[in-house]
Amino acid sequence: MLSSILAQVPWQSPTIDYHAIAPEIVLAGGICLIILVDLFVSESRKWITATLTGFVMLAALVPVLTLAVSDADVRTMFDGRYVVDEFALTLKALFLVAGYVVVLLSQNHVEEGDYYQGEYYTLLLTSVTGMVMMASSRDLVSIFVALEFLSIPAYMLAAWRKRDRKSNEAGVKYYLLGVFASAVMLYGMSLLYGVTGSTLLSEIGSKLTVEGQFGGVEALAITFVIIGFAFKVSAVPFHSWAPDTYEGAPTPVTAFLSVASKAAGFVALVTLIYVGFPQAKDVWQPFIWVMAAVTMTVGNLLALRQTNIVRMLAYSSISQGGFILMPLAVAGTGDAAGPALQAVIVYLLVYAAMNLGMFAVVIAASRTTRSGEISSFGGLFSYAPALGVLMTIFLASLAGIPPLGGWIAKFSAFRAVLEAGNGWAYAIAVIGAINSVVAFGYYGNIMREVWMKPAPNGETSAVRTPSSLVAALSITVAGTLLFGILPGTIMRFGDLVDLTGAFGG
Amino acid sequence: MLTAQFLLLGAVLFCIGVYGVLARKNAVMVLMSIELILNSVNLNLLAFSVRHGSVDGNTFALYIIAIAAAEVGVGLAMVLLIYRNRRTIALDDLSEMKG
Which of A153, A373, B51, B64 is the most buried (most CB within 10 A)? Predict the structure, then answer.
């Protein structure tokens, strides 16, 4: 049976556009290089692996930039299964820069924590490679492979502190729920293949066109696939792993998971919705609507009662995820498709800058406070004014106060929702507005600790911030301020972004 | 055609797997249940592949088999890690963090 099918199609080796996959090639080469270097350098010089990893991330950015300025707008490979367009390039750049910042955050943390350095950076780089692949994937198989490529190293990173019971627990919870989610997602994908006869997203999109005529199988398939990625972006009710994993994992890994891994989940979700199921909006719109509303609300309410800052940031990132889902909930209505895509991209870019920055401040300040409790940050401004100001900037941005980046992100999300202009859209806009006020409650609480409270146990020696953390802080604060003060810079990214074949194609 | 029977078997396996993940407290049993789900996916893909007369499903199944092996490798390593630190692999005991 199989041989007769295979015999029908003569084998042709696919043409490969090496320029288009140059970022992936650089990263893959970098992974091999770091494994090799790690074998040959002595224990005291392991910091070389960190520096090299940073260089590899930046080196992979070079082909992304040359692709962005090259004449060919869209490069497709393997019959449209792997596409390099402006959407993919923007997100590849996001993943690489976020990865670079995480390397900067990790450097001192990993060195002082006596972790396995070479392996740590190898896994980090592998995960980033998976994300970069995810941005280009337009096929169920390549989406699945990219998802596992980015997840499996992340499971190991979460459990990195082998002897720490919390870190073990973080890893196992993340692993079990992540694998379960991807298994459910695969079942949905197998049904999708069954009803459409193809794994190519654009073909699935064209087969699922007859509006209002969905059988139960199609609806089930789409729901299962979306559930798979809802776990990845930790949308309520699939969020239960997030707080425990974030708290237990090493803090730089938490920063990585809450920014890069979450963004990768959104990228896959956006690709699926826009290319795969644009006509099936009756199935996914209500589902995402409910998820967005519940995610914002539950994330916020639980964040309000946290005393540990990392756990609070975990719930805050869940609720920010709800805001990113919000435009997607109306993406199929009227003219909202374009603005919704733009809003998601803009939000992801801004969110990456401000959340990584927030984690950088927490890591820098924890070097003195030695604690994750919010009360231990009391009086931070009095003995570390720079960190206090930076923390305020990031918190204000997360809360969405102008003129910072978070404001423009929230603005574009609300604008996209109002573009849809029906009752559902207004309802979710109201829920979003209430939630952004509630969110100020816990962000403001930390600000009050930092500015008004005295330092606990009188610890007022100046904080020495290592240069790698200073670099990470500068990159993220520059991003947060630039996107907020000059929103034109980032809205341009949003305008460029077009998913090939998504609109009217 | 036999496709329907294969799909039915796939659905049954999927349900057993989901039940196992939700109800079992032993980490290794949960891993095995996840494997059941993945195998139900493979069965589905192969059945659909025969039905559509294309090799896409077969290819997808091969990828799933390969990646599932890697996944279980990581999973078992983590279970071992937990066992070393706690002398138990009951998932209910994993409750260091709350809130």
Answer: B64
Q: Which residue of A has its CA nearest to B54?
A: A5
pTM of the model: 0.92
Domain boundaries, chain A: 280-499+501-505
DSSP output for A437-468: HHHHHHHHHHHHHHHHSPPGGG--PPPPPPHH
**ipTM surpassing 0.90:** yes
**A386, A391, A396, A399 alpha-carbon torsion, rounded to 10°:** 170
Smallest CA-to-CA distance from A357 within A401, A324, A315, A404 is with: A404
* Mutation choice for B interface testing from A179, A244, A245, A301 by most B CBs within 10 A: A179
Nearest to A165 among B38, B47, B86 (CB): B86
> Of A367, A346, A372, whose CA–CA distance to A493 is shortest?
A346
User: Given the DSSP bridges, would you call strands A82-84 and A75-77 parallel, antiparallel or unpaired?
Assistant: antiparallel
Domains and CATH numbers, chain B: 3-90 (1.10.287.3510)
At A75 the three-state DSSP class reads strand
pLDDT tens-digit map of A281-314: 888 888 999 999 999 999 999 998 888 889 999 9
Give the tens place of pLDDT for each residue, B21-67.
Answer: 999 888 899 999 999 999 999 999 999 998 888 888 899 999 999 99
Judge contact between A228 and A177, C-beta under 8 A.
no
* Rounded-to-integer distance, Cα A40 and Cα A219, Å: 54
**Secondary structure of residue A140 in the 3-state scheme:** helix
Determine, for residues A148 and B27 on separate chains, whether the beta-carbon distance falls below 8 Å.
Answer: no
Cβ <8 Å between A243 and B94: no
Q: What amino acid is encoded at A494 in this protein?
A: G
Nearest C-alpha in A relative to B87: A165
Return the ∠ at Cα A197 (arms to B43 and A336), rounded to 5°. Answer: 115
Question: A248–B17: do the CB atoms touch at under 8 Å?
Answer: no
Inter-chain contact A194–B48, Cβ cutoff 8 Å? yes
Compute and round to an integer the Cα radius of gyration of chain A: 22
Q: Is the peptide bond before A237 cis (omega within 30 degrees of 0)?
A: yes
DSSP state string for A198-226: --BHHHHHHHT-STT---HHHHHHHHHHH
Instruction: Using the structure block, give the residue that is written with the tokens 């540990």.
Output: A308
Contact A190 B48 (CB under 8 A): yes
Please name the residue of chain A whose CA is at the shortest distance from the CA of residue B4: A194
